[in-house]
Every structure is written in C-alpha cells, then in structure tokens.
Task: inverse folding
C-alpha cells in the first residue's frame, strides 16, 4: 500500500509541476489542483497507513499514541481543501480579468491561436 501511495503522490506531483509550466491558463489551474492533491495525500498519509483499524482507542487498550491515528493531518488536509478551493476561485477570476484586458489566455502575454 505504501508503494502505491508513493507512486500516486509522485505522479500527481509530477503532472502538476509539468502543467504549471505550460503557457495556457486552464493548464496552470489544473497543475495547481493536481499539485495540491499530491500535497494533501502526502500530509494525509503522515497520519497512519493502517487498514481496517478504528482511528480511536479501543476498549481494554492502553491509551498511547501507538494505538490511534493522529487527527492533525486530517484537520490539516480538510483546511487545505477549503483554502485550495478559495485560492483556485480567486486565481480563475484574476486570470479571466487578465484575459479580458489582454485578449489571450497565455500566461506570458503572447497571442496564441484562437
């Protein structure tokens, strides 16, 4: 499971960086989205990678850190999703306004094909 998760994080991160380097607005937005998904998966995986176990302390077990999942990565990912959505919406509004002023959706300002 760790290998699959590492591969998914790597592919999402690599595709996100590649799309960030593209000159089109939509590709940049998709790159930011994929990169944020990769970072969220990475943070979420830091909590624990156990399967079919409850995330809370079970009855009869000692209440130590080894017996439950850390809730902090879950809270960080939830916060990152909300902030990422708001940032993406703001980014789209700014880029649409920029397209209205310049007449193109290239990031570098050159005129592209219609």
Result:
């Amino acid at each position: 499971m760790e290998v699959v998760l590492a591969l998914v994080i790597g592919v999402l991160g690599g595709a996100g960086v590649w799309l960030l380097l593209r000159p089109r607005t939509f590709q940049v937005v998709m790159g930011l989205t994929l990169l944020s998904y990769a970072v969220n998966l990475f943070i979420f995986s830091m909590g624990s990678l156990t399967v079919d176990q409850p995330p809370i302390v079970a009855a009869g077990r000692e209440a130590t850190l080894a017996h439950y999942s850390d809730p902090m990565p879950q809270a960080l990912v939830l916060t990152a999703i909300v902030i990422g959505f708001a940032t993406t919406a703001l980014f789209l509004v700014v880029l649409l306004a920029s397209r209205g002023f310049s007449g193109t959706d290239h990031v570098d300002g050159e005129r592209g094909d219609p």
